[in-house]
Amino acid sequence: MASWDPQQYERFAEERARPFRELVARIPTTSAVAVVDLGCGPGTMTATLAERWPDAAVLGLDSSPSMIAAANEHRTAQVTFQLADAAQWRPQRGSLDVIVANASLQWVDDHETLLPRWAAALDDGGTLAFQVPVPSFDPGLAGVAARERWAPLLAGAAGSTGPRAASPVLDGAEYVRLLSAAGLTVDAWQTTYFHVLPGDDPVFEWFKGTGLRPYLDALSGSDLEEFTADVRSELRQRYPREPFGTLLPFPRLFVVAHRA
Ligand SMILES: C[S@@+](CC[C@H](N)C(=O)[O-])C[C@H]1O[C@@H](n2cnc3c(N)ncnc32)[C@H](O)[C@@H]1O
């Protein structure tokens, strides 16, 4: 499995935290005893769920050992973490009040099967809330990976943790239909964040912590150096440095589905 680097991921912690907060702010569940953060990453944001629902046991799940190791720094009597693959996770029917998945489901296949299963795990009054990048958004990584020089080397890394031919993310309307059919009331919206990033090659650094990771993990030696140079150059052209910083428009899709 491709490795995640919690330190690289947290370089843009504030920009990454904002969608999480805006997602959680829309969750209507007022009291909760069981809250799960699916794909919790380094656990920084999971800890904030304990403030929102002080009476709940908050469990962060993630399939990356390095992320769970970092998350365990935030462990308390109320907030715990476990290594688990979201695709295999089978919560008991009616056992949960809140399921949050921020910026993680784009790494998990087969939403058509998983989301109804998770919806069934919600108790009355419970909410499933997730945020994913809009599936049509390609900052330029897929274009470079598809070049003749790279396609044969990167095709072997395809799969649920590798470069993806197609995103598993559905569009907003499909999520509304799927979760309404599962008996939930759905609030879905899209927002583009216009991040202004400081420093050199910040868009490369941003995606190095997320979307680029599977490509980089599939290469080594001079191939890795050359591919990295190609991606840097592509991203510099697409996202030039401006007097105020580097502008990264990032479209995100939010879904908050509530069992009345
Ligand atoms: C972009 S990070 C988001 C972290 C956190 N939710 C946040 O908002 O900062 C994506 C996380 O999803 C996790 N992930 C990817 N595939 C997963 C899976 N199948 N099951 C559980 N976690 C997964 C990764 O290990 C990573 O920590």
Any idea how many domains? 1
CATH topology: Rossmann fold
Report Rg: 18 Å
Largest sheet: 8 strands, mixed
Helix content: 25-40%
Number of DSSP helical runs: 11
CATH class category label: Alpha Beta
Share of residues in strands: 15-25%
Structural class: alpha/beta
| Shape category | globular
Uncertain stretches of 5 or more adjacent residues: 158-164
Essential attributes:
260 residues, alpha/beta, Rossmann fold, binds S-adenosylmethionine
Characterize the structure shown:
With 260 residues, the protein is an alpha/beta fold. The protein has a single domain, classed as Vaccinia Virus protein VP39 (Rossmann fold). The protein is 36% helix and 25% strand. It has eleven helices and eight strands. Strands 1, 2, 3, 4, 5, 6, 7 and 8 form an eight-stranded mixed sheet that branches. The longest helix is centred in the C-terminal third of the chain and has 18 residues. The protein starts with 5 loop residues before the first helix and ends with a strand. About 3% of the residues have low confidence.
Task: Sum this structure up briefly.
The chain is of the alpha/beta class. The protein is 36% helix and 25% strand.
Show the helix and strand layout.
Layout: H1 6-9, H2 13-25, E1 34-38, H3 44-52, E2 57-62, H4 65-71, E3 79-83, E4 96-102, H5 111-120, E5 122-133, H6 141-145, H7 151-155, H8 172-181, E6 185-197, H9 202-208, H10 213-217, H11 221-238, E7 241-242, E8 245-258
Parallel strand pairs: 1-2, 1-4, 2-3, 4-5
Antiparallel strand pairs: 5-8, 6-8, 7-8
Residues 4, 16, 20, 39-41, 45, 61-64, 67, 85-87, 102-104, 107-108, 210 line the site of S-adenosylmethionine.
